[in-house]
Amino acid sequence: MNETNPLIALVAYSLAIVSAALLLRAVPKIARHLQHSGESRYASIDGLRGYLAFGVFVHHSIITWIFLRTGVFEFPPSNFYSMLGQGSVALFFMITGFLFWGRLLAQGRQHDWLAFGVSRVFRLYPLYLPLMLVVFATVFHLQGWELKEPGIQLLKQILAWLSFDRPDINQYPQTGMLISNVTWTLAYEVFFYLALPLAATAFIFRSNWRQILLCLIGIYALYQLVGWEHSLKKHFIASFLGGIAAAYWVRRPQLVAWGRTRLASVIAIVALVVAFTAFNRAFKTTPLFLLSLFFVIVASGNTLFGALKPRSIRWLGEISYSTYLLHGFVLWLMVQRLPLALHLDARETWVYLPLMAVCTCLLILVSSATFLYIEQPGMNAGKRIVQWLRLRQKDNRPVTEKVAR
Prior knowledge:
The protein contains 16 helices and no strands. With 405 residues, the protein is an all-alpha fold. The N and C termini lie far apart (72 Å).
């Protein structure tokens, strides 16, 4: 197998889209969910998410293929497959920056910070905690349930994993590779969430220079705190700025109107193609600019000649967090453990490619199930928690305030 051949990605994406389309036909609950959610205000971004999450899976599939043959984890030699991972992550950061900065611009000081904080916890953890449990159980199973670390050390490892760090568990080497180390991006997401109130105060609500200075110091302190174990990289954080720029872009009707033209579609596609073929790293000035240009056009509501619009793509977008979080473990299980049990050599092309195809279909199936039965109930639980907290606040108001109202 030639790890630079783009046809591998084309076939993998086709299998994923077909799998999603078949699920839409076979599972009424999925069709009802999409019908109920309807066309969101940013439907094009919903579609983009599906391509991005699956792109990271393809990226890691190529890295795994290289590892099986060389014993070394390294970026693919192909710019395209390298950027399919890095570029997708950069665009995910832009989506986060766009959505949450856009809410702040729309709601101003009326922004519901309580709902924001609770929703983020119930968005990240309901799926992450079961995955973390599976990883720990897998490690101990592979080690014959032998405890090789003192209890206090194991507790530290649990706490580190809860904060999305990935230290080796119970001396199992490169534990993070069981999930393709995908949780590193969640540390950046958490930093953005924590810094958002300070950034909003400094750049949107602007009161006085002292308050702005204190907020900037607070952001720097958070930057050091969140990255205390593995320093956060400034050029990764810069990706969020592309999304923030798009939040201002979509508030100008003339720019949005241009962003939906055929010319804009062509420019967006050209910018994406150049970024994914001329560069092997996304987090540099020129590729970030090209990706930002692509993103502001998509954020304008451009579906790129309909490529972001099909229901199957929208479903891939709905399950994108499950796809992103779970693909590493599914990949490890299917192409590293299963061949050992079947006495197959996964280094052979005729073995690896069919396993990757099965892994693709299985990933879409599993991600759909975890979205419906873990993610969605988790998000609904978060909404109920917010309602309960609001009722508690209302009941705990002083009697004089209640009478006055």
